[in-house]
User: What shape does this take?
Amino acid sequence: MMRYRLFGRTGLRVSELVLGTMALREEAETRRVLEVFAEAGGNFIDTASAYGMSEEVLGATIEGRDRFVLGSKYTLTRDAADPNAGGNHRKNLVASLEQSLRRLRTDYLDVYWVHVWDRRTPIQETLRALDDMVRAGKVLHIGISDAPAWVVAQANTLADLRGWTEFAGLQVPYNLLQRDIERELLPMAEAFGLSVTAWAPLAQGKLTGVAGNRSNPAELTGHERATADAVTRVAAELGVLPAHVAIAWTRHHSRAVLPIIGVSNAAQLETNLAATALTLPADAVATLEAASAFTLGFPGDFIAACDTSAHAYGEAVDRTDTR
Assistant: This one.
């Protein structure tokens, strides 16, 4: 059975894996997926207004609504011909939320996510409008997806100052082939106590060890192939599937990370749920990260070098503990 984490700095209990529903289209199969997820202790479901049928199918099949933590997202346009049908401003927020509530056949969302940072809308407007939805009872908690670290930090500092609802979650891509969040976003999330729901933990199938479609070895770059080979090698040594290794690795660096497991059928979900039982040994992590060849870059590498430098902090630097 899955364990649970607290969502951000709230008391909301969410499962350690998140069910991604973007590919769900057929009601009977969606019902089976939800049954498998619930039987494993899963309760955190992710969808979005831009996923189209996903919300409608969930609304038609989900049973025991209050037992699940249901999250949806808004930003992306509902009507390309309407300039106000997309973006993070108040008008689109209200219209998108009402649309999602109708599709999902519910009167509230547990988590409402900003889908992507909108440069054209002041973050103050977005926060204040989201806070209104929380006060109205239509949304319980809020999160933000695909935004720079400084935007999220600015937003939560502003919300704290003004007594508005703060972002409790951050949604970003994270896998062995895309480790960018380790530079700024993941440290920021940990500092602000945000939960991090990580999409594409399998890198669109490239880390599953299965040829075909988007994971065709012939279509991988040299770096991708080396990393995928390392995942397959570690999986063979541990006697598990490559997908389990890839998912387990996303959980290794930070307890804030909650991988989103996107599936199109119950069999895929049943296979990937076993990743929760896997804890990677140190030598396996070293093998995987040597293959992924990731560096923090500036300022991370520079600060790390200074951190142990007597030239920067004096002769007692190696005898001074960090917090």
